[in-house]
Design a protein that fits this description.
107 residues, mainly alpha
Length: 107
């Protein structure tokens, strides 16, 4: 789960960056083709809307990340590297925090 979350976060960032390059290309094409600002604005508006959705999607991924971190802490898992600093944890998943009760829950 952790690996998938980090991959989604990276993809969201890459999408946002690529959309920025697309907007730059649209402005360059507008200039090269001699299009009016009115025609170009309609295109940039739609591209900007898509970029806004991408950044909001990334924000939702980050919010989900924080919820996962809170849950992990409540479960006694080592979530030290989940936060705002440090590298993503290993792809092999979570590991119990030192001293955490790792006995199975019996109903």
């Amino acid at each position: 789960m952790v690996g998938a979350l980090h991959r989604c976060e990276r993809l969201a960032a890459e999408l946002y960056a690529e959309q920025g390059r697309l907007a730059q290309a649209a402005i360059a094409a507008e200039t090269q083709l001699g299009l009016s600002a009115v025609a170009g604005q309609l295109i940039l508006h739609e591209l900007g809307e898509a970029q806004g959705h991408a950044v909001r999607a990334r924000g939702h991924l980050v919010a989900g990340h924080r919820q996962l971190e809170r849950l992990g802490k409540r479960m006694g898992l080592d979530v030290e590297m989940f936060g705002d600093s440090g590298k993503p944890p290993a792809e092999d998943g979570l590991r119990p925090a030192l001293g955490a009760d790792t006995r199975p829950i019996v109903g």
